[in-house]
Amino acid sequence: xxxxxxxxxxxxxxxxxxxxIWGFGFIIVKASLDxxxxxxxxxxxxxxxxxxxxxxxxxxxxxxxxxxxxGLVLGFILWIGYMTHVIGLSTISATNAAFITSLxxxxxxxxxxxxxxxxxxxxxxxxxxxxxxxxxxxxGGISNFRIxxxxxxxxxxxxxxxxxxxxxxxxxxxxPLTLNFQQLAVVGFLSLVTMAIFRFxxxxxxxxxxxxxIYVVLLADIFAYVxxxxxxxxxxxxxxxxxxxxxxxxxxxxxxxxxxEALVFSTLVGGALVVLALLISEIxxxxxxxxxxxxx
Length: 296
What we know:
12 helices
């Protein structure tokens, strides 16, 4: 039991690290999008990530296509999430996109209940609501709701589905590295096809773009998704969703560190509430109160 608790703690810490990586990556990627189209960036980075991970698996003599149906499902879900995010973000404000995407914290327990009959604990409901309030304060909520916001809502849905199906597959004794190679390859392939169909210009040779690609390939794609997949064997989907709300917190923090944005009071309050929600989801209050033990 103690070993399981330690693994759960390490899993949550690894997921927090992924949010720091993605939060910093958002600043780097944002600076490169004036040069390269986001679909082109997705195609290049995910294809390179899959190639590197695939080469490692080949060297280790592991099957690249074992249980490939699971990788196809995860990859397609991830790709749809990225596409709706890219299209939505081009028509709405960044604050709207950040908040609506964070709605996945509500969709994870709801979709988990609907798809996999998972119970929703009271403690998790409280944590989710506090995190949602924190993200609302952090991002400023929603204003001028448009069609792009609807597309971004689909992003939140597919983020939730990716968390839930990752949880399902890793607990079916699927090899996490193989699963990651497959999902990365699917996202890369579909993005390259989209890039070819719409004939987006391939501006990858600019110095800042090259550094961006190196960062996202090694850290934001290979390390972060592998860490997420391994971690979800030892933590709960709803806790993963709550941890994912730390991404805008880290983005705001790094933006302040690098002086691209000011750190205002609402950012501090919103970030503090998200951290509080994470602590609530971690502390086993059911030992002190008669709450039902968490199951999702």
